[in-house]
Amino acid sequence: MRYITIFLLITILSCSKKTKQTENKIQKINNSTLDFEKVKILEKLYVNARNGLNYRKKPNGIILGKLPYGEKVEIIEYTGIKDEIADENRIIKGEWLGIKNYNDEKTNKVYVFSSFLDIGSNIKLIKKNLSIVQGIYSPKSEVFFYESGKEMFVDSLLKFEIISKDIFNQLKKKNIDYINRDSTNVHRNKDTLFIKHHKFIDNNIDNESRINFKYIGSIDFLNKYVILRNLWENEDFILVDKSTGKIDSENEKLLQLARKNGMNLLGFPRISINKKNMISLKNSSFTQQAELNIFKIIKNSELQLELSLLFKTWSPSENEIFWISDNEFIVKAFPIDVISEYEYGEQIDSENYLKIKIFNL
User: Fold this and answer.
1) 27-33 long-range contacts, Cβ below 8 Å, gap at least 24?
2) How far apart are CA 303 and CA 301, in angstroms?
3) Which of 296, 309, 329 is closest to 144 using CA atoms?
4) What pLDDT score does 259 carry?
């Protein structure tokens, strides 16, 4: 009798605990306005549905919008609500998950179906989406930005081709590195970097004013030093005249994200094989987009900005960009939301290899 009483007591407590958990789950589902700073992220996944993934007000509820293929989502609730849905003549089983929604302040928690998410290893670039840009600038025209998310394609300016890793490795052998790493005329004394006719002073304060300079090398036929500038949340490159110490600033006003101290290149300066063109390509931490700046090298060894583009769907691996002809370069690339995990050392096997041709150079 004693054992029966203990068993009944444990059963009642267990049922009570489950009932409380169910009530909490319902309360969490109904509470769609959250303080992001206080909400714990349980998991980060990526949309693997090629046509996008609907997000809803509640599990299997009203559709509020659609997340694009490859977008990263932050899981903040495992609802435990299992379901089956029909997708292209097949039945898919999964769970409804609560995620952060950055598109609507009033409904900042929404729900998606788990079967259309994965860890990122299966996310690949789609050729038709490679030429989508969020912003485009040319000195010969106007600046276009589409903050509302309107898409614009640049197929008349660039041609994209997805290539294999083997072809990429074979083609990159054609690249010529025009950076001379000789540092004979460069030295550092504590916080100051000295080069001929010029000096750069670090500011090591631990806030947004922090800035550090590092000598990379020189581009001899341009007569320029290449300096890496590390900033609080980003980095860029500046070019300095070897003879005068003057920082190139002629094109500063033409660059989308130019800073006040002269020409800056978000990505490493890469010279084409014929020495007539240069590109700078990097993912910007400010725009969360890949920025490509295309320059012509004119007769007096000055740079002339031709085009600046902000790509919406992909981002480069910064050390894997190579010219293969006078107007073509190759790049190891990732879906835009996957690149951050790759840069922080995550094992993401979703790299892609692109060949990009620039028209009218």
Assistant:
1) 28/77, 28/79, 28/98, 29/58, 29/59, 29/77, 29/79, 29/98, 31/109, 32/57, 32/106, 32/107, 32/108, 32/109, 32/110, 33/106, 33/107, 33/108, 33/109
2) 7
3) 309
4) 36
126-146: pLDDT as tens digits: 888 899 888 787 777 655 655
Helix (H) or strand (E) holding 262: none
pTM of the model: 0.73
Highest mean pLDDT among 117-126, 142-151, 186-195: 186-195
Taking the CA of residue 78 as centre, how many other CA atoms within 13 Å lie in the half-sphere pointing to its CB? 7
Residue 269, burial from CB neighbour count under 10 angstroms (0-12, 13-18, 19+): buried
Kindly give, in sequence order, each residue whose CB lies less than 8 Å from that of residue 263, ignoring residues fewer than 6 positions away: 238, 239, 247, 248, 249, 250, 251, 252, 255, 303
Report which DSSP code applies to 128: G
How far apart (Å, rounded) are the C-alpha atoms in residues 46 and 142?
A: 35
Instruction: Name the DSSP class of 101.
Output: -
Closest CA to 227 of 269, 176, 277, 284: 269
Coil vs helix vs strand at 270: strand
pLDDT, one tens digit per residue, over 222-249 is 998 999 988 877 788 888 888 877 775 4
The pLDDT value given to residue 150: 65
Q: Which residue has the tokens 């074979």?
A: 170
